[in-house]
Amino acid sequence: MFTGIIQGIASISHIEDKENLRTIRLDFSNDFCRDLTLGASIAVDGVCLTATTLLNQGSIEFDVMLTTLKTTTLSKVMVGMSVNVERAAKAGAEIGGHSLSGHIDCSGRVVNIQQPKNNYVLTIELPPTWMRYIFNKGYIALNGTSLTIAEVSRDKKTFEVWLIPETLRQTTFIEKKINDLINVEIDRSTQVIVDTLCLAIAEQFELLQLKGDRFSLCVA
């Protein structure tokens, strides 16, 4: 599990593509890798990956399988790019953001960037099927960063997030451009509530239809 509070920025130093598998090497600061062991979980741009090779104190390799490549932006990263990173949360640690699994739901597209004084606003477009989980003031994770949704436009299938200077300093968002893709993890509690309500409504609708059919048969 992760908290959505980014702990560092890593650089992609090597990529090796095999059939249905991609190996990515990241270079970290030494402080980030302190006491890290083989098999440790690290969120890379929000994607939970397992450390498969510890090359030295500041360089680690990860294997990214096909299903992850299909769902996330890790299929499109290149050598020299930077990514947000967070180590797995420890039991009892303070959660400054919200609980994340590191399992990405979809990719969102940056469609607008605004820069009011001392602020930075990203407008993200989502696939229509995921907009049902997006609400004003709700939680969302973008490239592993816990953020609050500021505005929602259901007609345009977009939402806004506002980033303070500290968030820009600690993450790679300042490097994003229009049409760039961003990993999106929907808040799980929101997803469960919405899906449960939709299922309950659908079941009630089916019951009403069944009762209506029976009534029609009796009248006939």
What would you say this structure looks like, in words?
The structure is a single chain. Helices cover 22% and strands 39% of the residues. The protein has helices spanning 30-33, 66-71, 165-170, 188-219; strands spanning 8-18, 21-27, 41-44, 47-56, 59-65, 82-87, 106-114, 120-125, 139-142, 145-153, 158-163, 181-186. A hairpin with a 4-residue loop joins strand 10 and strand 11 (158-163). It is globular and about 70 Å long. It starts with 7 loop residues before the first strand and ends with a helix. The mean pLDDT is 90.
Q: What would a concise description of this structure say?
A:
The protein has 220 residues and is an alpha+beta fold. It contains 4 helices and 12 strands, in the order ββαβββαββββββαβα.
Number of helices: 4
| Largest sheet strand order | 1-2-5-4-3-6
Largest sheet: 6 strands, antiparallel, barrel
What class, by secondary structure content?
Answer: alpha+beta
Query: Based on DSSP secondary structure assignment, what is the total number of beta strands?
Result: 12
Gap between N and C termini: 59 Å
Note the overall shape: globular
Mean pLDDT: 90
Low-confidence stretches: none
Secondary structure blueprint with pairings:
Blueprint: E1 8-18, E2 21-27, H1 30-33, E3 41-44, E4 47-56, E5 59-65, H2 66-71, E6 82-87, E7 106-114, E8 120-125, E9 139-142, E10 145-153, E11 158-163, H3 165-170, E12 181-186, H4 188-219
Antiparallel strand pairs: 1-2, 1-6, 2-5, 3-4, 3-6, 4-5, 7-8, 7-12, 8-11, 9-10, 9-12, 10-11
